[in-house]
């Protein structure tokens, strides 16, 4: 590999500060991608943070480019919120700052790619009520127009999401989530109990009520449920089955999950199928796989398609009896769990964050990636 100063450099952009200890997938992914670009060999120019920090970094970037030092590409991780609302308005508002950053890079001949995280705002469940419910979709559309005018390459979690956004293949590339390398754990000892884990949201489009109903019907199945405390309090008030002794709940950050995965044999992603889940790909799917945990997913979802394509778990109808039957079967079939766990580990080995960083670099600047190999 070339010396430190000779290695190509890239710009990592995010219109918000990166959380070193994230509790949500929307903040975990940008952190992992920034780390991954450095891991595969790029020198990373960080253009994330508050408005004031991004302004300072943008000024430094322009000066560097004007001096003839051009980055290989700019890669951006957008927010689930419109860019102008991605950080607290109390720390400053700059509606056109991120647009100007991308325009400057394009004028300098620097390829620009944006990971477009979500399209929840196109659906009724994702809209707030009142004035905010009208303003946010308008701002999201404005961001989308700005990206298009800057000629960015859109990265999306799945190919079906491109159709939702009306993006053609020539400006769009799938870039699903990934998992950490080398964190696979042995399955826990067989003890006659089916140990399950679910990490993620509850309520809204994270509708797992049918799964919970099936779970309480199988006495030898136990679930470790990790979710944010406010979501848990709302969900348990609406669904008394969540108080069952079979469910152990905790509220943990991303760096606190390893012991939870060690105790579990199977991951759960059994949300009710919907148009949203036909294209959404949760980060937790690949986190389950990276720990060597096969996954139960619902048929009719993009998650189910990925699980089935990799043989890394089981795909089941969103039906109480069907799910209960599968849980009862798995409680008696530890050898089948071990077989699917091996497939999960195999899938994880080619779906790391470093793999995603290489995919993004290959799309935006194949020559710079070649220089690192």
Short description:
The protein has helices at residues 25-39, 51-66, 97-107, 130-149, 159-165, 209-215, 229-238, 258-263, 283-290, 302-310, 320-331, 334-349, 353-364, 366-372, and strands at residues 9-14, 43-48, 74-77, 112-115, 153-156, 172-174, 194-199, 221-226, 247-250, 266-269, 295-298, 313-316. The protein has 373 residues and is an alpha/beta fold.
Please characterize this protein's 3D structure.
With 373 residues, the protein is α/β, with parallel strands linked by helices. It has 2 domains: 4-178 and 353-372, Rossmann fold; 194-349, Rossmann fold, CATH 3.40.50. The chain is built from 14 helices and 12 strands. It has a 6-stranded parallel sheet with strand order 2-1-3-4-5-6. Helix 6 (209-215) crosses helix 11 (320-331) and helix 13 crosses helix 14 (366-372).
Question: How are the SSEs ordered, and which strands pair?
Answer:
Blueprint: E1 9-14, H1 25-39, E2 43-48, H2 51-66, E3 74-77, H3 97-107, E4 112-115, H4 130-149, E5 153-156, H5 159-165, E6 172-174, E7 194-199, H6 209-215, E8 221-226, H7 229-238, E9 247-250, H8 258-263, E10 266-269, H9 283-290, E11 295-298, H10 302-310, E12 313-316, H11 320-331, H12 334-349, H13 353-364, H14 366-372
Parallel strand pairs: 1-2, 1-3, 3-4, 4-5, 5-6, 7-8, 7-10, 8-9, 10-11, 11-12
Helix pairs in contact: 1-13, 6-11, 9-12, 13-14
């Amino acid at each position: 590999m070339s010396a430190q100063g000779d290695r190509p450099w890239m710009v990592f952009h995010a219109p918000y500060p990166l959380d070193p200890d994230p509790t949500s997938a929307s903040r975990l992914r940008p952190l992992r991608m920034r780390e991954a670009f450095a891991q595969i060999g790029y020198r990373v120019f960080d253009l994330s943070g508050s408005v004031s920090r991004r302004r300072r970094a943008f000024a430094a970037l322009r000066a560097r480019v004007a001096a003839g030092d051009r980055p290989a590409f700019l890669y951006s991780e957008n927010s689930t919120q419109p860019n102008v609302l991605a950080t607290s308005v109390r720390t400053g508002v700059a509606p056109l700052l991120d647009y100007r950053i991308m325009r400057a890079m394009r004028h300098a001949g620097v390829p620009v790619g944006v990971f477009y995280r979500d399209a929840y705002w196109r659906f009724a469940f994702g809209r707030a009520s009142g004035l905010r419910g009208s303003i946010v979709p308008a701002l999201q559309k404005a961001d989308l127009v700005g990206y298009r005018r800057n000629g960015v390459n859109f990265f999306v979690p799945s190919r079906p999401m491109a159709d939702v956004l009306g993006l053609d293949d020539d400006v769009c590339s799938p870039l699903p989530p990934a998992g950490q390398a080398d964190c696979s754990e042995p399955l826990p000892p067989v003890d006659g109990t089916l140990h399950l884990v679910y990490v993620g949201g509850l309520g809204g489009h994270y509708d797992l009520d049918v799964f919970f109903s099936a779970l309480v019907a199988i006495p030898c199945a136990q679930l470790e449920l990790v979710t944010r405390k406010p979501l848990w309090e709302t969900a348990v008030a609406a669904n008394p089955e969540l108080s069952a002794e079979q469910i152990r709940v905790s509220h943990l950050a991303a760096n606190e999950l390893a012991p939870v995965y060690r105790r579990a044999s199977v991951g759960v992603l059994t949300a009710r199928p919907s148009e949203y889940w036909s294209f959404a790909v949760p980060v937790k799917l690949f986190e389950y796989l990276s720990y060597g945990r096969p996954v139960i997913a619902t048929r009719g979802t993009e998650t189910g398609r990925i699980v089935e394509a990799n043989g890394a778990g089981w795909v089941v109808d969103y039906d109480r009896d069907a799910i209960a039957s599968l849980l009862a079967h798995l409680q008696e079939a530890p050898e089948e769990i071990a077989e699917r766990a091996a497939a999960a580990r195999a899938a994880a080995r080619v779906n790391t964050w470093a793999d995603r960083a290489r995919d993004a670099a290959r799309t935006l600047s194949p020559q710079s990636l070649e220089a690192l190999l």
